[in-house]
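Translate structure to sequence.
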């Protein structure tokens, strides 16, 4: 019977009869529907806010998962290639050691000057001067510049440069300057040869 009364109230319901200043006089069925709608709205808003916070957590978790996966892939690649890295490191150390052997020690600099002198004489050049200049210190090595001035023809000078560049010790050649001699068909070449000495690091 109560259900029938409710249905009758809804059938006879006219929204224009509702007085917002006298909500207590509204039909019970209408008040029930409005309360149900308000409850649904409150629940919907609360659920939406709850899901929004959870979605932020999910997004953060997905980003973290992507970062962890990328980090894992990098570490997995390194672990999978560890033997290759070790071999490459050993090869680099061996190469570095070979290069160090080619750098003159402080006591070997006079011998290097003799090698440059011999290279000039072997190519029949006239040696005007070979002078060791002031060292230049850097963080890892000492640069040893040598000013060389020799006289000869074009082919002699070319052979000398080739010979100096192929000495057993590392020598680099810089700042070429070639001028013709006024009283002959000879050429004067001034060149700066540089060699290097490794600076031992503390604790190495």
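Result:
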């Amino acid at each position: 019977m109560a259900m029938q009364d409710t249905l009758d109230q809804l059938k006879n319901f006219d929204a224009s009869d509702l007085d917002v200043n006298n909500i207590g006089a509204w039909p019970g069925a209408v008040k029930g529907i409005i309360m149900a709608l308000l409850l649904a709205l409150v629940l919907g808003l609360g659920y939406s806010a709850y899901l929004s916070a959870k979605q932020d957590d999910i997004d953060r978790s997905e980003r973290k998962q992507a970062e962890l996966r990328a980090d894992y892939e990098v570490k997995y690649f390194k672990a999978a290639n560890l033997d290759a890295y070790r071999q490459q490191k050993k090869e680099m150390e061996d190469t570095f050691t070979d290069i160090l052997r080619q750098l003159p020690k402080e006591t070997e600099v006079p011998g290097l000057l003799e090698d440059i002198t011999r290279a000039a004489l072997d190519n029949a050049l006239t040696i005007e001067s070979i002078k060791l200049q002031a060292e230049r210190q850097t963080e890892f090595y000492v640069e040893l510049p040598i000013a060389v001035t020799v006289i000869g023809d074009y082919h002699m000078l070319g052979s000398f440069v080739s010979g100096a560049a192929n000495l057993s010790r590392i020598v680099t050649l810089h700042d070429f300057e070639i001028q013709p001699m006024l009283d002959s068909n000879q050429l004067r070449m001034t060149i700066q040869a540089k060699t290097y000495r490794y600076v031992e690091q503390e604790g190495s």
